[in-house]
């Protein structure tokens, strides 16, 4: 294919389908843009859940990023293996995960691990584990500022919880964790206004904590949609994740953010069962299926309409069957990249239209060694 098709690979006959292709030059662009938007690499805490891969972690570390966020113990262990300095597990550890979190701290003494809580029961569980293991555990209070998924409302109950955390001899109060993933208005000005309004109660809570003569809490805030606004706050660490690989969902909703899609699905036509119908080898097992159609955005197949999907197959209506043939290669950007990556053992690395490497998605599993 022509060189201007940045996504295509030469000799695709050597690459299985479906495959998830990644492009280091585009990833580097996205890293550089993240840093430029914050103006201070020390205020970035990117989320690794999107890519779950050591190579992309190391690209960020090479750019000066040392703080990360993750969602699973396996992702945290990967960051420990990469010698990341500061890792926030942004998932309240419950059940056996509380003990696993302690094992993580003990296995990687040179990495500062912290996690989140939103209730006194979790605080007491982690306090007891810290005492039994003769360690101190660093905690953030998870704040619910409107998403209503996890967290505690930034009111007097949150103030009481933070004070109890600060006064606990076995725990370290790090600050406030705020995820506002519900703020996705496609108009940038409206989204910024919504973000600022939702953040006001958090700032009030911070002020009330300071009035108790408690050291001012640090704040980790936002995801990718609100990253442009939290990145402007001098005393806040911004924590985007999808920005590293991007996808068509965010790309179409937030084009002003200028991140580049850096992950592409390579798929083949599996069958042409009847006139006007193409079937691709791109089922539920190969791309995130929770979104309504279209679940992918074809880069080289115009005027197509995705009509059904099953475990192994994606069925598409197409108005010109004179060109596509069974076995033909096509390329598409997933609508939701994070759960799509988790479906692949490896990322196929492409540079200058050549496959140059394979990167393991090593933290896609529920458990690594801990």
Poorly predicted sequence stretches spanning 5 or more consecutive residues: none
- Portion in helices: 25-40%
| Percent range for β-strand residues | 15-25%
CATH class of the largest domain equals Alpha Beta
Report on the biggest sheet: 9 strands, mixed
Q: Note the quaternary state here.
A: single chain
Family: Belongs to the DSD1 family.
Keywords: Lyase
Protein name: D-serine deaminase, pyridoxal phosphate-dependent
Organism: Maribacter litoralis
Q: Can you describe this structure?
A:
- It is a single chain.
- The protein is α/β, with parallel strands linked by helices and 370 residues long.
- The chain has two domains: 12-21 and 262-360, Lyase, Ornithine Decarboxylase, Chain A, domain 1 (Beta Barrel); 24-244, Alanine racemase (TIM Barrel), CATH 3.20.20.10.
- The protein has ten helices and 16 strands.
- Strands 1, 9, 10, 11, 12, 13, 14, 15 and 16 form a nine-stranded mixed beta sheet that branches. Strands 2-3-4-5-6-7-8 form a seven-stranded parallel beta sheet.
- Helix 3 runs parallel beside helix 4.
- The chain is elongated.
- It starts with 18 loop residues before the first strand and ends in a 10-residue tail after the last strand.
- The model has no long low-confidence stretch (mean pLDDT 96).
- Residues 262-351 form the D-serine dehydratase-like domain.
- This is D-serine deaminase, pyridoxal phosphate-dependent.
- One of its GO terms (biological process) is D-serine catabolic process.
């Amino acid at each position: 294919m022509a060189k201007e098709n940045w996504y295509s690979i030469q000799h695709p006959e050597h690459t299985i389908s479906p495959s998830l292709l990644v492009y280091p030059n585009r990833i580097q662009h996205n890293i550089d843009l993240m840093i430029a938007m914050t103006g201070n690499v020390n205020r970035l805490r990117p989320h690794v859940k999107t890519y779950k891969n050591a190579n992309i972690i190391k690209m960020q570390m090479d750019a000066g990023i040392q703080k990360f966020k993750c969602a699973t113990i396996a992702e945290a262990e990967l960051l420990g293996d990469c010698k990341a300095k500061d890792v926030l597990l942004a998932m309240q550890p419950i059940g056996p995960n509380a003990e696993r979190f302690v094992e993580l701290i003990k296995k990687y003494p040179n990495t500062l691990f912290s996690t989140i809580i939103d209730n006194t029961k979790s605080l007491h569980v982690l306090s007891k584990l810290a005492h039994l293991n003769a360690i101190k555990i660093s905690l953030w209070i998870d704040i619910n500022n409107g998403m209503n998924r996890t967290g505690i409302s930034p009111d007097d109950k949150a103030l009481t919880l933070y004070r109890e955390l600060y006064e606990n001899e076995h725990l370290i109060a790090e600050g406030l964790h705020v995820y506002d993933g519900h703020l996705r208005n496609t108009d940038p000005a409206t989204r910024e206004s919504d973000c600022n309004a939702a953040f006001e109660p958090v700032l009030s809570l911070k002020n009330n904590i300071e009035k108790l003569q408690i050291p001012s809490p640090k704040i980790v805030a936002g995801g990718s949609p609100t990253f442009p606004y939290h990145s402007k706050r001098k005393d806040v660490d911004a924590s985007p994740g999808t920005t590293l690989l991007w996808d068509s969902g965010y790309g179409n909703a937030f084009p002003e953010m200028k991140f580049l899609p850096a992950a592409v699905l390579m798929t083949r036509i599996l069958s042409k069962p009847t006139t006007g119908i193409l079937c691709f080898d791109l089922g539920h097992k190969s791309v995130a299926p929770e979104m309504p159609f279209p679940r992918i955005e074809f880069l080289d197949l115009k005027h197509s309409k995705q009509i059904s999907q099953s475990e192994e197959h994606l069925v598409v209506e197409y108005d010109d069957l004179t060109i596509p043939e069974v076995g033909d290669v096509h390329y598409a950007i997933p609508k939701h990249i994070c759960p799509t990556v988790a479906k692949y053992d490896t990322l196929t690395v492409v540079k200058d239209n050549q496959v140059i490497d394979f990167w393991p998605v090593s933290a896609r599993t529920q458990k690594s060694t801990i």
